Amino acid sequence: MKQLFTLLLCLCLNSVFASGPRHQYVKITTAQGECIILLYNKTPLHRDNFVKLVKQGFYNGTLFHRVINSFMIQGGDPDSKNAPAGKELGNGDVNYTIPAEFRDSLFHQKGALAAARDDNPKMASSGCQFYLVQGKKLTDPQLDSMEVKRLHFKIPLWEREVYKTVGGTPHLDKKYTVYGQVISGLAMIDTIASVQKDANDRPLADIKMNVTLLKRRKARKLEKELRKSGGEQIAFLLNQ
Taking the model in full, what pTM does it have? Predict the structure, then answer.
């Protein structure tokens, strides 16, 4: 009887855990739209740090302070809160860095969430600043040239297809840690990347963000919807 009870308990616990979301998700809301980002489990240091800051409300009221069309939009500088117009931003930070977590399967496709950093030799990430990739679609000749001149490694064929059909910034691969992916709301990136800006790439009109963590129930529902939608790209994301 005791063995039967233990078996039933294990089955119940497995059912509970199986029904829960495998990933954590955050939502970034701006006046220019919103997006939902899946955080990768393969980069636990960056994932956990980002979740911690989001729970603290750290990012609320900060700006997307650096935007470059066909490249990326960057935010997370604590000094950007209530910063006066025209002030150069990008140097604010927390008092720690995150060790690089480069993974061959995580790359700079459009919508990638990645950590900003300075030029430190270990390529450690900023503790708070991040960017969302916009990039652009590339051709095989362009990717061939990039492999030789900038990357010095071969881009896998399946990644090439993504860069050719979806777009991205492959020259940043293995140099900056990618730790998430936009799964809805890519249009927000396009809108923000195209705004008017000053000589320091700061938007002339402030773009404030509000960042929240999806609650477990919403995350579970979202993940179930993603699994039902199918497709190789979704299956890939949910395995990272």
Answer: 0.90
pLDDT tens column, 60-73? 999 999 999 999 99
Kindly state the tokens that stand for 149.
């001149």
Cα(222)–Cα(234) distance, rounded to whole angstroms?
Answer: 12
H helices of 76-126, where? none
Report all structural domains of the chain as residue ranges with CATH numbers, in order of start. Answer: 22-238 (2.40.100.10)
pLDDT digits (tens, 9 = 90+) for 91-121: 999 999 999 999 999 999 999 999 999 999 9
Q: Are 180 and 120 in contact (CB under 8 A)?
A: no
In contact, 93 and 126? CB cutoff 8 Å:
yes
From residue 102, give the alpha-carbon distance in Å to each of 19, 81, 185: 29, 30, 25
Closest CA to 62 of 220, 206, 163: 206
Q: Is 106 helix (H, G, I), strand (E, B) or coil?
A: coil
* DSSP-based three-state secondary structure for 101: coil
- The alpha carbon dihedral of 74, 76, 77, 83 has a sign of positive
Those residues whose C-beta lies under 8 Å from the C-beta of residue 63, and which sit 6 or more positions away, are 75, 77, 80, 81, 83, 89, 202, 203, 206, 207, 208, 209
H or E element that contains 146: helix 140-146
Give the CA diameter of the chain: 75
Among 35-39, 165-169, 231-235, name the one with the lowest average pLDDT.
231-235
